[in-house]
Structure formats: structure tokens, C-alpha cells
């Protein structure tokens, strides 16, 4: 068991941040910890990484108790906090050398994590000269230096532009082939893109814990499509297995289908046959979106 949380509670004055949280994460899982802002995600991250103490309950990482075996927990975890703390005046390699000395690991690990995180082209620069995406890579490289078995990432893509976001997601998935990852976020697409499983938290309570595979296997799906001009919704109702069609703005439509078969090729062919240009075509996981809205909009 990589992470075990049992009946963890935490309050700040009269405010209850966490209330009897319990879950386990097996080795090799990438788990999305999803919830609205203020749900208690960062509080739990801090407890798991020994930065904060729980009021009640137990938590362990690699079977080491977060309260009584802090040093062993810290050795087992690589942590990227929400606000990635970096020394902007230090060069990338200089910063990683500083962290390598803290962890007492060999200098050869520096080159390994630079290659692993794709930092090589920028490794000669000062951190302050890097883009936000590359600064996140530096944070990940530092978290990986001591070769931890568990990575805890708190909002790792906040503030990134679309290209940087895709790069970091790809990097997290690659790292996840060898590590257990708990990824805290309030962005559902983040979870869909990189995770095997989702734990949803709201007002300090776990309200759902599901495999993404289970959600994807459920029948209903939404296809978001953008055409080059406005189309009557009744016209799109001619598509097979349509449940609902909704114009969500401009020339963009959400088409809900009652089938597990990916309907994107069908929508594309339908548009082509009817001389419509498809400017954008994507599949939404309606079940995750619906589940999140239903459980957190309270």
C-alpha cells in the first residue's frame, strides 16, 4: 500500500477542513484528488507530506506513519506544492545541486532528472529566466532527485498556457509509469487526461471514489463540436443515438449520445456528408462532470 489514510480530521479554529477522510492508494496508481477550491485538498497534502499534523486519525506513506516516522515519510515522497518554491536567482543545475546535497544523493542523479523532465535545453539558464512550464519541470526534477516511490503534486498545472499544460500532463503520465502519484486539482480535464482513478472531496468529506475506467464504460457521452456556421439543433437530432442537442454559444454544440461507442467519427462523417466544416471536435466525460457537479454543488 503506497498511501493509507484513515479517519483523518483537521480544523482551523471553528472551521472544519477535513472530516474523517479515509482512502488507500495502491502502488503504481495515478489518482486524481478532485474538489472545488477550499474543499480541503491542500490541507490533506500537507498532512501526508508531514508539513501539518492532523487533529485525529492516521495516515501512512509506504507503511511509515506521518506523525511518528516523519523522516522515512519524507524520504518516500516527492512533493510539488501548489506554489512551487524556487530560488529564481539560481541556475537550474545549481538549484538541483543544492537539493541533491540536502537529500545526500549523488550528482549523477541531477543529469538523470534533467533528462527525465526534459530540462536539458534550459538547464544552463537561471530559474528566473524560465517560462512557467519549465519552472514546473524544475520543481518536478527537484521532487524526483531522491528517487521517491510516491509523488504528491498539488495543482501542478495552475497558471500554465495550453501548450505548457499538455507538456506537463504528458510528463506526469510518463513519470507515473514508475511511481505512485496523488495529483490534487480542481480541473476535471486534468484528471481525465492523466489519472487512473478519481477521489472527489467536498467540504472536507470524500464524496466519491471511482476508477476512471468505470466512468468511461458508462453509456452516456457528450461530443462537443464546432462548425463553421450555425446549424439548427433539429438537424443534428438526425444523428444516431442522440439524446439531446444544445447550442452552447456561437457555432458550438454539445450533442449527448446514449451509447458507449465513440461518436466522434460519426459526427465528423455526418458534417462532411452535409458540407459542414468541423472546426473542433472533442469528447467530454459526462459522467465525471455530472458526478462532480452533483456532489460538490451543495
Short descriptors:
about 300 residues; alpha/beta; Rossmann fold; Alpha-Beta Plaits; 2 domains; 11 helices; globular
Description of the molecule:
This protein has 298 residues and is of the alpha/beta class. It folds into 2 domains: 3-215, Rossmann fold (3-Layer(aba) Sandwich); 218-296, 2-Layer Sandwich (Alpha-Beta Plaits). Helices cover 34% and strands 31% of the residues. It is built from 11 helices and 14 strands. It has helices spanning 41-48, 70-76, 92-103, 108-116, 132-144, 162-175, 188-194, 212-217, 233-236, 264-273, 286-296, and strands spanning 3-12, 15-25, 30-34, 56-61, 64-65, 77-80, 150-154, 180-185, 197-202, 205-211, 220-227, 242-249, 252-258, 278-284. It has a 6-stranded mixed sheet, with helices on both faces. Helix 4 (108-116) crosses helix 5 and helix 5 runs parallel beside helix 6 (162-175). 37% of the residues are buried. The mean pLDDT is 90.
Brief digest:
This protein is 34% helix and 31% strand. By secondary structure, the chain is of the alpha/beta class.
Overall mean pLDDT = 90
Shape: globular
Number of strands: 14
Distance between the termini: 33 Å
> Poorly predicted ranges (pLDDT <50, ≥5 residues)?
none
Q: Which structural category do the helix and sheet elements fall into?
A: alpha/beta
Numbering strands along the chain, what is their spatial order in the largest sheet? 6-7-8-3-9-10
Number of individual domains: 2
Order of helices and strands: EEEHEEHEHHHEHEHEEHEHEEHEH
- CATH H-level superfamily title of the largest domain: P-loop containing nucleotide triphosphate hydrolases
Amino acid at each position: 500500500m503506497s498511501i493509507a489514510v484513515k479517519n483523518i480530521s483537521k480544523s482551523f479554529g471553528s472551521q472544519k477542513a477535513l472530516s474523517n477522510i479515509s482512502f488507500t492508494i495502491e502502488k503504481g496508481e495515478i489518482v486524481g484528488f478532485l474538489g472545488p477550491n477550499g474543499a480541503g485538498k491542500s490541507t490533506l497534502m500537507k498532512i501526508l507530506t508531514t508539513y501539518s499534523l492532523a487533529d485525529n486519525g492516521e495516515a501512512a506513506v509506504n507503511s511509515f506513519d506521518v506523525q511518528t516516522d516523519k523522516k522515512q515519510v519524507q524520504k518516500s515522497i516527492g512533493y510539488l506544492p501548489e506554489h512551487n518554491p524556487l530560488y529564481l536567482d539560481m541556475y537550474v543545475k545549481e538549484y538541483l545541486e543544492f537539493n541533491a546535497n540536502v537529500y545526500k544523493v549523488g550528482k549523477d542523479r541531477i543529469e538523470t532528472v534533467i533528462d527525465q523532465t526534459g530540462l536539458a535545453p534550459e538547464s544552463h539558464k537561471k530559474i528566473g529566466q524560465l517560462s512557467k512550464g519549465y519552472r514546473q519541470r524544475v520543481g518536478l526534477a527537484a521532487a524526483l532527485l531522491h528517487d521517491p516511490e510516491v509523488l504528491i503534486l498539488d495543482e501542478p498545472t495552475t497558471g500554465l498556457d495550453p501548450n505548457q499544460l499538455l507538456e506537463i500532463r504528458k510528463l506526469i503520465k510518463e513519470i507515473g509509469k514508475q511511481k505512485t502519484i496523488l495529483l490534487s486539482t480542481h480541473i476535471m480535464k486534468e484528471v481525465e487526461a492523466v489519472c487512473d482513478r478519481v477521489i472527489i472531496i467536498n467540504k472536507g468529506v470524500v464524496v466519491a471514489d471511482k476508477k476512471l475506467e468505470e466512468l468511461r464504460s458508462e453509456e452516456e457521452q457528450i461530443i462537443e463540436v464546432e462548425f463553421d456556421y450555425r446549424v439548427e439543433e433539429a438537424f443534428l437530432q438526425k444523428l444516431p443515438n442522440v439524446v439531446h442537442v444544445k447550442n452552447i454559444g456561437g457555432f458550438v454544440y454539445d450533442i449527448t449520445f446514449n451509447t458507449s461507442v465513440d461518436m466522434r467519427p460519426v459526427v465528423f462523417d455526418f458534417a462532411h456528408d452535409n458540407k459542414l466544416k468541423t472546426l473542433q471536435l472533442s469528447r467530454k466525460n459526462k459522467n465525471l462532470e455530472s458526478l462532480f457537479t452533483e456532489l460538490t454543488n451543495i
